Amino acid sequence: MTIEIGGVSGKPIQESGDKNNVSATHNSSQKTPAKSSGSGGGDTVSLTSSATQLRELETRISDLPVVDVQRVSDVQRALATGTLELSEADAATNLIEIEKSFSQ
């Protein structure tokens, strides 16, 4: 069974005879080997510098809070004290903009 995977340059990566030792070569000067999570298989993967940067960015983003805690606290306080001011026009405009972004 042959599986063709397009490389970064658009050229297909050629399958070698040994299916337990797979590697790909690209014209990138920096590569970082990724660790295999399998049990003793000996498979290796080389990542380009772009893939390594994406992995680092993903890690940084995952460390960011999903919610702005200060904003939530401010809204809760305003709701509890009855001082939350809402503009129907602003709410409608924001809702329309959100709907427009979904259609793009």
Q: Can you describe what's shown?
A:
This protein has helices at 49-63, 69-81, 88-103; strands spanning 31-34, 45-48. It is mainly alpha-helical. It folds into 2 domains: 1-64, no CATH class; 69-103. The protein is elongated. 0% of the residues are buried. Mean pLDDT is 75; it is low at 20-32.
- Please tell me the overall pLDDT: 75
Order of helices and strands: EEHHH
Number of domains as seen in the coordinates: 2
How would you describe the shape?
A: elongated
Estimated helix fraction = 40-55%
Give the total of beta strands. Answer: 2
Main sheet: strands, sense, barrel? 2 strands, antiparallel
Strand order of the largest sheet: 1-2
- The radius of gyration computed from the alpha-carbon positions, rounded to a whole number of angstroms, is 25 Å
List low-confidence stretches. Answer: 20-32
Distance between the termini: 40 Å
Q: Tell me the number of helical segments per DSSP (H or I, 4 or more residues long).
A: 3
